[in-house]
Amino acid sequence: MIREIAIEDIENFRTGNAGDEKGGSGCTVILCDEGAVGGVDVRGGGPATRETDLLSPLAACQEVYGVMLSGGSAFGLDAAGGVMRYLEERNIGFDVGVGRVPIVPAACLFDLTVGDYGCRPDADMGYRACVDSERNRPERGNHGAGTGATVGKFLGEERAMKGGLGIYAVQAGDLKVGAIVAVNCLGDVYDVDTGEMIAGVLTEDGRTMDSTRRQMWDAIQMQKNVFTGNTTIGCVITNAALTKDNCNKLASMCHDGYGAAIKPVHTSADGDTIFYLAKGDVIVNPDALGDLSAYVMAKAINDGVRSATSAYGFISAGDMAGENIK
Fold it and tell me: Is the pTM of this model over 0.85?
């Protein structure tokens, strides 16, 4: 029997947010003080990432101590430095003899056109997210990396909707698995259970939702620059006993969750990235876990837009629900 749980019920991990609501950007950190086995899969054509090479099965590094999900485009990669400072102060990291080096992979989304262009997550904001993780009660929607997130941007920001930070977790027997994701996609977001569109590109009058897929297909011969404003970044955590090979394969399978909830997905204008972290001793069938993890990720994406609130001129799915959506 599978049942929904809180993300903080997954032992060995803690999650925290920090952000600048006025500036329109923020960051979300997932920490594992004892070190977790990790993997990653980058599918989008425009990623902004840090330390992802260390998660390759070919790399010697066997454990990471946190993952940073951040706004600010490539500028936001600085936030990971604050995570390293926080962990080093607590003597957490890989022992190199003269000290410990915390390994903290990171990925960023593009939100520079939302709020204040000069607002980018930095090391201080990353550090504050770590402090927030001590209470391990992460807020969703317009918080952390979801602060400036938007969705459905193929026809420009004036026809986009508000995205946000989504969280979803489940337990099956002794196994626990959860996803944290900042939903900031070029495409539209669909309910993974019903197939209904939840948020995305708006019609010209802004009162109902259109279809990015249809708009793209109708303009298939048109060259359109849509590189700004996109990328969905997420992390799955579990108490399963996994290897680096497992984690990398499961990160790949989790992109099925992106595909189920976001259409279109993995475009050249997105930097879609998923991290997978495991710390625990629960023995599982990795293929079954991969399929379940993909579903959990899709549900977290749905949560990201449903928990968002209207801000920066972008209407939320919750507010749009009263606008006679077809």
Answer: yes
